[in-house]
Design goal:
This protein is α+β, with helices and mostly antiparallel strands. The protein has nine helices and 22 strands. Helices cover 20% and strands 26% of the residues.
């Protein structure tokens, strides 16, 4: 694997040199000839690179600086004027033609003419649809059309952190920009990107895939929403976004993690300009230390893989069940002498006593109200059966009122009185049936000994 990108503290390498502005097609200049009003006025540099001056005709100015243009105009007017005094000012620079490639939404060639006098690098990025979450902010490359200028390396992280305009240089016509891909994208930098004006604006929705230990694996569409906080300036403008898709939100949409999920080794696979990259997400850190960088922002086409834990820790089940990315409810089967037997849906971390009450409590005439049997499928595939004494007056302890897991089964047995009664009924059932049969035939066959008058 390639080495990690330079830290954000590193600044420009080979900073752009302040070469004089060179006139080009589309520039609008003001030419003033002192004392001769009819020779003064605005001039547009035409497609052939010339301006048309009163009294001297066409003059080529493409590639000249402003002082050089003043000198050549003065030379031409010296043929018809004595000691001409010429001033030239740039009124409106031409649209800047640039090329941008790499981790931007719409790479290509662009004209930057957005009402600003001079376009900056940040404007070029925004015009190209913003940088993707896979962009390497620290190694942006700027190549000038002027062969005298070496390739410039720019750190946009410093621009976003400190508002350093040296990291947002003014662009020149013919510049080319390359935004490289992170070799191993970091959640902290992704969060920095999506919270800035340089990121891709939020669209209506993105498509992601969630597989592994979730309730409903599959492909999902996650909505986005956002707005721009204009603030007091345009440089380093921040975008305030809400409801951006994250790993935990995708897991929630897929029904939440199962009790077998390994939340420490979740993988996010992302398609970048250089191929598929994978990063690890540790949601246990998010729960333990509030490390928000572990809740990675997602982009179009991401795949989230939640692996199965090889040795799940039962002591962590309760904390994971309370997490926002867990199931919204769990299913528990309660069978036997209960008021409403069957499958019930209860919140995670519901103790046994509350589940019994949710099912209507015991059948008071038939149930053994002193104990129940808890049947649980363990992560290793084995099944455990526990007899638990029930006392609604006791607190929540694992011995008498354990927290239930998804797919637990609670068996409420009959009381001994009910068992005796049921067995007696079964024993007497044949005799009862004989009496019933006798009464049936007695009604069906008339008595031959009856008197007939």
């Amino acid at each position: 694997m390639n080495s990690a990108p330079p830290p954000p503290e590193q600044g420009l390498e080979n900073p752009p040199q302040d070469f004089p502005y060179l006139l080009g097609v589309g520039d609008r200049i003001q030419v003033n000839v002192f004392g001769v009003q009819q020779y003064s006025g605005e001039q547009l540099v035409l497609t052939d690179g010339t301006i048309n001056l009163q009294g001297i005709g066409a003059l080529s100015v493409v590639g000249l600086t402003i002082p050089q243009t003043q000198t050549i105009i003065a030379q031409r007017y010296s043929n018809i004027l004595r000691q001409p005094m010429i001033t030239v000012n740039l009124i409106a620079p031409r649209p800047v033609q640039i090329a941008i490639a790499g981790e931007v939404s719409r790479p290509g060639s662009y004209n930057l003419s957005n009402g600003q006098q001079f376009a900056r690098l940040s404007q070029a990025i925004q015009t190209a649809g913003g940088i993707t979450q896979s962009a390497n902010l620290t190694l942006v490359q700027l190549r000038r059309a002027d062969p005298r200028q070496p390739v410039v390396t720019i750190n946009l992280g410093i621009l976003l952190d400190k508002g350093d305009l040296n990291q947002d240089p003014i662009l020149r016509d013919g510049d080319s920009i390359f935004i490289p891909t992170l070799t191993n994208f970091e959640p902290a930098q992704v969060r920095q990107i999506v919270s800035s004006s340089l990121s891709t604006p939020p669209s209506q929705s993105i498509q992601v895939v969630v597989v592994g230990e979730v309730a409903r694996p599959g492909a999902y569409s996650l909505n986005q929403d956002g707005g721009i906080d204009t603030g007091s300036g345009g440089v380093g403008l921040r975008i305030v976004k809400t409801e951006l898709p994250t790993v935990t939100r995708a897991i929630q949409t897929a029904g939440g993690i199962t009790y077998m999920a390994d939340v420490r080794n979740i993988e996010v696979q992302r398609l970048t300009k250089t191929g598929i990259q994978t990063t690890k997400v540790d949601l246990w850190k998010l729960l333990q230390s509030g490390d928000i960088n572990q809740d990675l922002y997602l982009q179009q086409g991401d795949t989230i893989i939640i692996p199965k834990a090889t040795t799940p820790d039962p002591t962590e089940f309760e904390q994971l069940s309370n997490a926002s990315f867990s199931r919204a409810s769990i299913g528990v089967n309660i069978v036997g002498e209960i008021a409403r037997p069957g499958l019930i849906q209860i919140p995670p971390n519901t103790p046994l006593n509350q589940a019994l009450l949710a099912a209507g409590s015991f059948n008071l005439r038939r149930a053994n109200q002193h104990s129940v049997e808890l049947i649980r499928l363990n992560p290793n595939g084995s099944v455990t059966r526990r007899k638990i004494r029930v006392n609604f007056a006791l607190g929540n302890t694992d011995e008498n009122n354990p927290v239930l897991h998804h797919n637990d089964v609670i068996v409420v047995a009959r009381s001994w009185v009910t068992k005796v009664t049921d067995q007696t009924t079964e024993l007497l059932s044949p005799i009862s049936n004989l009496f019933g049969l006798y009464n049936f035939f007695d009604r069906l066959i008339p008595n031959s000994n009856s008197n007939s008058d």
